[in-house]
Design a protein that fits this description.
The protein is an all-alpha fold. The chain contains 33 helices and no strands. The chain has helices at residues 33-41, 45-48, 51-63, 67-80, 85-97, 101-114, 119-131, 135-148, 153-165, 169-182, 187-199, 203-216, 222-233, 237-250, 255-267, 271-287, 289-300, 305-318, 323-335, 339-346, 356-369, 373-386, 392-404, 407-420, 425-437, 441-454, 459-472, 476-489, 494-507, 510-523, 528-540, 544-557, 563-573. The model is unreliable at 1-48 (pLDDT under 50).
């Protein structure tokens, strides 16, 4: 996520400049006043067929909470009065509120066809294009708006942000400079000019702009954090410390500043001050969940494991029995592949604390990875007795048995889970996988179909069922439909794209298969099954050189049952 304190709001609220009228408010339609009065007073059906009548119906349906009906009435009104700018704007607002951005775009385009410089419509058009991620069009539109009216403050911010996203610093600088020229008190413009100067390595000018931002908006914290980054880059340690202190003086509850200052002290050998801050954070974390959240955001999510461990050790000195901190420490050591330390911390998570169940589940899988399956199973069985109304221990018990190949015990565990929660999607899906591995294809298909009945948008189940059909060579048309539906929900999933390629392969559409499987390999370059599939397609296309290349890549990555691949390689190399 882009770190921007001034991220522009693109959606509905931005369009309130076209606020809808009330029933009693005079409305500017192109019909004349006499016709309007006749429509209201008369019950003649021919006169009811008027733009104003349909507008009133649209307005009433909107008030009643029936937006789809309102949209139909608006469209009828516009059919009768196609020149009405007002009606089209009102329809656009409604479509945007209903998140029908593409339909709204068509209406705005119809306005701009006849009024290409109609400012409000251009603003809506640009924002819709931005919301649809058509950024080049959005940038061009915003540039046009500013050429027509350079006093559109919000457009400078939107356009500058788009150039920043593109890392086009020169154009971003041009736009933010124009912003502060036209609006000297724009702290947003000064802030982003500071960021641009910082990116370009001009720390003196960057510092000046951040200080100007603070002069205009003294309560802002983001410019102070930017200054900290700047001072760190210049190795001005005293200024770093003082700026952290400035933040904490204004806001003693700023967890990020406390963590940052503590870690800076620690890194620079001022251990006593660091430890004091860490202990304070540890004590505070017991009653303030935001401390844990911030710790996770700053270090765990960004994979800064070593810094997180230093911080956690300091915090645990103050609260050595606090389960939440032990759980997070377990996660970090787990990700560092230090299984022994991870196990040690997971074991210190106490029953009836919020992470206890997760800690036991993670601990069980660590035991299994170490070959201690009995320990893993016993842990999960004990957990199922501690929380008898929770089906999750049985789900993971089934998964452990599945991984060890004990499908009968996996089935028993999953059955127990379904007794507690008969419609648990995860358990039903796992059943399908177990039956597939157990070579009970019909039972597997039945479970996946059940998952899809309960959750029609479950991309994993749609893909699994579609791929199963492809593997068995049955229902290939249905398989294609299922997998394409899965791709609607996960369009960049390499495994699902592989499944589609494999369906095309089974159908004999080798060129289509090649296109899909090449994309799948780009997304998942190290999966032996996908690489083998691509090799099979090249063989069908009589491209033995590429087939051999992908067979060999697959062979190198595949850990078991490589006999089929060996035969495929031998067929080519023995020629």
């Amino acid at each position: 996520m882009k770190a921007s304190i001034f991220k522009p709001v693109i959606f509905v609220l931005a369009f309130l400049m076209f606020a809808g009228c009330t029933f009693n408010k005079r409305i500017k339609l192109s019909i004349n006043e006499t016709q309007k009065n006749e429509m209201i007073d008369s019950h003649d059906s021919s006169k009811l067929e008027s733009s104003y009548y349909y507008y009133i119906e649209a307005w009433l349906q909107t008030k009643k909470g029936h937006p789809d009906k309102a949209i139909k009435y608006f469209n009828k009104a516009i059919e009768l009065d196609p020149e009405s700018l007002y009606l089209k704007k009102e329809l656009t607002i409604l479509l945007l509120r209903e998140k029908k951005n593409e339909e709204a775009l068509k209406v705005v385009e119809s306005i701009l066809e006849k009024n290409p410089e109609e400012l409000n419509s251009l603003i809506i058009y640009g924002k819709i294009k931005q919301s649809l991620e058509q950024f080049d069009n959005a940038r061009k539109t915003y540039e046009k708006i500013l050429a027509i009216n350079p006093k559109q403050q919000n457009i400078y911010i939107l356009l500058g942000d788009l150039y920043m996203e593109k890392d086009d610093l020169d154009n971003a600088f041009r736009i933010y400079s124009l912003l502060v020229d036209n609006f000297p008190s724009s702290y947003v413009g000064h802030f982003f000019l500071g960021k641009i100067y910082l990116k370009k390595g001009n720390t003196d000018k960057a510092e000046k702009e951040f200080k100007k931002t603070l002069e205009l908006e003294p309560e802002l914290e983001s410019p102070l954090f930017e200054l900290i980054s700047l001072y760190k880059a210049k190795n001005e340690k005293k200024k770093v410390i003082q700026t952290y202190k400035n933040i904490l003086q204004k806001n003693p509850n700023n967890i990020g500043a406390s963590i940052g200052l503590g870690c800076f002290y620690y890194k620079n050998g001022i251990r006593s001050r660091a430890e004091k801050i860490f202990k304070d954070l540890g004590i505070r974390s017991v009653n303030d969940s935001e401390v844990i959240k911030k710790l996770i955001h700053l270090y765990v999510e960004q994979n800064k494991h070593d810094a997180a461990i230093i911080l956690l050790k300091g915090m645990l000195k103050a609260v050595p029995d606090f389960s939440d901190l032990h759980y997070i420490a377990g996660i970090i050591y787990d990700e560092k592949k230090d299984k022994n330390e991870a196990i040690s911390h997971y074991k210190k998570v106490l029953p009836k604390t919020r992470f206890y169940k997760k800690a036991v589940i993670r601990l069980s899988f660590l035991y299994q990875l170490q070959g201690e399956t009995d320990k893993a199973v016993n842990l999960l069985k004990a957990l199922s007795k501690e929380i008898p109304d929770d089906s999750e221990p049985f789900l993971y018990l089934g998964l452990i048995f599945e991984q060890t190949g004990d499908f009968e015990e996996a089935e028993k565990a999953l059955i127990e889970g379904l007794k507690i929660d008969p419609y648990n999607i995860s358990i039903l899906f796992r059943f399908g996988v177990v039956y597939d591995k157990w070579n009970k294809k019909d039972a597997s298909i039945e479970k996946m179909q059940e998952v899809i009945r309960l959750d029609p948008e479950n991309a994993d189940a749609l893909n699994y069922l579609g791929y199963t059909y492809a593997e068995t060579g049955q229902n290939l048309d249905e398989a294609e439909v299922l997998i394409k539906k899965a791709l609607k929900y996960k369009p960049d999933d390499g495994y699902i794209i592989d499944s589609l390629g494999w369906v095309y392969f089974k159908k004999g559409s080798f060129e289509k298969a090649l296109k899909s499987l090449e994309k799948a390999v780009r997304l998942v370059p190290d999966d032996p099954a996908i690489l083998e599939h691509l090799g099979d397609v090249y063989m069908k296309l009589n491209d033995e050189k590429n087939a051999l290349k992908f067979y060999r890549r697959s062979f190198d990555l595949k850990k078991d049952d490589r006999s089929q691949l060996e035969k495929k390689i031998e067929i080519i190399t023995d020629k």
